[in-house]
Amino acid sequence: MPETKVILLGTSHPHIFQRFKYLQESANIILLGYYDSDANVAQRMQEYAGCPCYSDPKSLIALPYDVALIHGRDPRRRTTVRVLPPVKGDSRAGDTVVFEVGWELHYLETVAFARRIIRESLLGAVTLARFHGGCPGGAGAEPWQSDPENLGGFFYSLGGHVVEIAVDLFGLPTQVISSIRKLPVQTPHRGFSWVPGLFDGRQMDPWHAIGTLVHEDIASAILEYEHFNVHLDFSAWEGSRYLRDWSVEIYGVQGSMRLNIDGPGSCLLLKEKMGQWVSGRNELFSKREVNLAEAFERQMESFFGRVENARTDEEFCDENMAEKLLRLYNALYESARLRKWVFLQEKMVMHI
């Protein structure tokens, strides 16, 4: 198998440690080097990277790389993808640029099951769906949710994992209305957990106060499609760990599905027997919780398989999905600001 040369532009997101683990354990991947705009992060990351640190991104980009991974908090990262020069090495994907966004929940077995249910029309005509996400109380104050230059906070940075599932299942809506709110400041309380910084461990029961986040505390929205509605509701103050409260509910004329994204407690409720599924309640994922680390690995395997031009049955988070989510998020935050419905056309957003 040919070698794949990788560079990292930015290492300031906590997912970088999972990425490093995969890259270092892969026999055919060579890490050429990394860069981060934060000098302190760049220095401390040397302990984990196993490859040279570059102080100048132009020197790093000048290397004969095959893959560039971006995990930075530098606001300039928004344009980094556009300015990257063509790959200089053996581009095994031909003239195609292989693009992936880091929404690893896309690769969970529970989410794959939801895709299957929708695409097999097991529930009949869908009339309503609901998606819930959020973060443990306290995590909304982490640096990655607190960038004042970002469009939003936890709903933007963490909520995208669940919003991506909605768009993956149903595409973009025709119009949206939302309420994305900073709540009034309340008395500090013990949250669930947070990570104060990139190199800090997770701290349990941190003291934080509702209403003191840089961005929103809660977010709600109605997404109108031609034949059904989708509801989104998100809270930065959940009293449990990641994924535990996150869920997808879909209601159709032949049945409904309540899917807990971490697995246990999920069920499929059907009007009539269909294939392997009995009429009435079918328990799903009752034996174990899903493994998030496996989703990270599955995403990386899918991505590098595409780089190598290997066939894959896995669906992925490419530039088309990224564009859809950015358009939807722009509409959601615009709706909250204007307090009115926002209509999504093919390439633009209109207010109504």
UniProtKB/TrEMBL annotation:
<dbReference type="InterPro" id="IPR036291">
    <property type="entry name" value="NAD(P)-bd_dom_sf"/>
</dbReference>
<feature type="domain" description="GFO/IDH/MocA-like oxidoreductase">
    <location>
        <begin position="113"/>
        <end position="257"/>
    </location>
</feature>
<dbReference type="Pfam" id="PF22725">
    <property type="entry name" value="GFO_IDH_MocA_C3"/>
</dbReference>
<protein>
    <recommendedName>
        <fullName>GFO/IDH/MocA-like oxidoreductase domain-containing protein</fullName>
    </recommendedName>
</protein>
<comment type="similarity">
    <text>Belongs to the Gfo/Idh/MocA family.</text>
</comment>
<dbReference type="InterPro" id="IPR055170">
    <property type="entry name" value="GFO_IDH_MocA-like_dom"/>
</dbReference>
